[in-house]
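Input/output pair, single chain:
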Amino acid sequence: MTPAAPDLVVPDTSCLIALTGIGRLDILQSLYTSLAVPRAVLREFGDALPEWIVTEDLSGAARPLANALSSTLGPGESEAIALAAQRPGALVVLDDRRARRVARDMGLRLTGTVGVLLRAKREGLVASVSRALAQAEDVGFRVSTALHDEALRLAAESDEDR
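Output:
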């Protein structure tokens, strides 16, 4: 059974940078109907975002969570997790291993940039996950060898598909 579509998707800075770096930020708009980032992600991204990505302030209850998380995570990850936590049903897009562990422990719906690329391939938005990952790595996005290999396996590709 396919999980229900998220009410809101909260991408972290690394996802925005990677997809912008390969010229495919549009993938997020094509895959998800509602996207929002907290102010810390906007600051870290450092550039204007398209109007279809809304900047959303943390609620009063989410601010203490973000502050507590910031002792071990970066500001963008902390606020992305807090924003997703304040919006039941949200999907948070995180690549940092520690941030992913925290989000998972909190019971949040979670994916990463690689997961977004895999879904984009399933939906016909990218021809090759291998090529997209190679382009993202060229702009500084890093994945472990194990994650890279698993992504290619799930995409039914090889490095020759670049």
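The first helix runs from residue 13 to 21. The chain is about 50% helix and 10% strand.
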